[in-house]
Amino acid sequence: MTNEEKRKLLEDKLKTRFFIVAAGAWQDQWDQQDIKQIGFDSVKTEQKSLCVESLRQSISAELLRRFRHEIAILPPMTRDDYLAAQSKLVKSLPGELTGDFMTISSAGIKKACNDHLGMRFFEECLTRCMIKNKDYLNKLDKKQEQGNLLDERGLAHQNEY
What we know:
The protein is mainly α. The chain is about 65% helix and about 5% strand. The chain has a two-stranded antiparallel sheet with strand order 1-2.
């Protein structure tokens, strides 16, 4: 296949088989929108929405024309959003990790809301949980390796007959 044929094939694939989604966080603009409460233990209590035109101006015309020209703004996660995500995530973890995950994540949800961490917060919680439970995870890895060897032996044994 010539380079020209490869280029044409790649071009066709990109035009017909790929859906490109672009996203940005614009953290600096969200931070400018925060209205802080004055007093002890002050927290961010209100958030205005971002100005679509301001976001549009921060994106080059080239990108706006390559991707969807409309801008969708997703608001920062609320406390209820974090609690719902926490509830779904904990159900997917092995039982041995759920207690530590709940302790770690519950302790940080208020800060995650204030700092607009989004789902990245849970990545950090899972990382901390896995580090805390590395012995359990090592045992799990060893069991999985043994299980794979047994499967291979079982398949080999079946193939002998």
